[in-house]
Protein 1
Amino acid sequence: MTAQLIDGNALARTIRAEVTGRTQALKARGVHPHLSIILVGDDPASQVYTKHKVNDSNETGLSATLERYPADMSEADLLARVKALNVDPKVHGILVQLPLPRHMDSQKVIETISPEKDVDGFHIASAGALMTGAKGFWPCTPYGCMKMLESIGYSLRGKHAVVIGRSNIVGKPMAMMLLAQSATVTICHSATADLGAMTRQADVIVAAVGKRNVLTADMVKPGAVVIDVGMNRNDEGKLCGDVDFEGVREVAGWITPVPGGVGPMTRAMLLVNTLEAAERQSA
Ligand code: GUN
């Protein structure tokens, strides 16, 4: 069997078109959705990511500003800036790019963002909302993964999903989202003993470890849906995921590629959250 691809680029395009339409409707009411992005320091990857976020926003009619601060900015100054954005009615979404310099307490900074503007979905109130089923913001990467499952018409009801990786921004929220769709969920650690014994039972596998070849063909049940959240480099320096794509695609029923899978979906879901924030704040 050769797996069907879930094309993240194509799906992200569709989502961006929907965002563009809803943004136009908001603007017609005089509301101009705005995302404020804060970047502290000059981490090269963060510079690329934040530039993408600004461009993605502008392409869909949202406005975005990138505020850059030196790596030696004090935590107190950053908190003060976040608090100012919290009360600025022109700002609907706030994103503080991570990682922050080591002298800052990232969690404290995130908790300072108003939950109504937490478009990353990293605030403890957002996590709590997801846990309880209340209205909040879902973290963009697992939200994008759910959209990918939805796009292939996959019913999770009664299915077994295995999530590898238990981070607060992907693994744990992913598990909550799958559970809410009536799946049985197992969260594994990359150090889980006999990981293959777990994954071979799975109808859906989400790999979110950040290590190459975490999932190989022998660990996958024929026909399973495989979602690859990883972003790594192979020996040739090319972007690759956590999944041994060439091997696993021969066994899986559906698979997301890297690049062109979860990555563009994460970017698209930030736009959805920002638009949603503007809609809620102007309702
Ligand atoms: N750094 C890497 N990915 C992300 C993200 O999705 N949000 C934030 N705030 N920082 C990141």
Protein 2
Amino acid sequence: MRFCLNVDHVATIRNARGEVQPDPVNFALMAEQYGVDGIVVHLREDRRHINERDLRLLRELITTKLDLEMACVDDIINIACDVQPELATLVPERRQEITTESGLNVIDNLKMIKYTVARLHEAETLVSIFIEPDLNQIDAAAEINTDIIEIHTGHYANAVGEDDIFDELEKVRVAAKHAKKLGLGVNAGHGLNYINMKEFVAIEDIDEVSIGHAIIARSMYVGVEQAVKEMINIIRFAKKD
Ligand code: PXP
């Protein structure tokens, strides 16, 4: 299982003062040194955290891979086609939300998502679609030629009590297996942290996780190096079992 780090919330702290520190680009470069497999950013239409300067600098400087989360809207599609990240992850976006709240409804927005996938493929960019662990949504995503799906793990992360946690984890496991059978790559993310990752890492069909908030928050207590390495150890330790 690969581990990609989302650095959006470094930019959130920077933007709180409208100045230049802390710099998400610097944070990303440090995290690469400590072993992350890629860097994720979400260029929102309202630019509430990452901005175009961050995106273009990351494109130039990082040596692992860049995953750009984005809405299916023309302005952002044009930027993505120009920047050519290794991966573009399509997400729903609502201005009022604090963070991405659910997966994209591929079935109800088929035309726009299909158009976005095709444009990104023309720009030689792999495409992932962030969706709920719902087999019908996964089938629809496969039909419009996505390369990868990212399974929304927010319900698993928010589950309370053993039964609930087991049920949500099972939904992710079944969805990942189904996607793999269709020939898709399988990523996962949202709300994953140092505690819930311990069970999550056992899901064999997941190729990659995208984790942000938990790592940025932990780095405030223990520093970037330890925050990153603690997560890498959780993933590595599970592989040996
Ligand atoms: N994956 C997607 C599609 C997201 O939108 C986010 C949040 O930006 C994440 C993963 C990471 O979530 P978290 O910050 O809760 O780890």
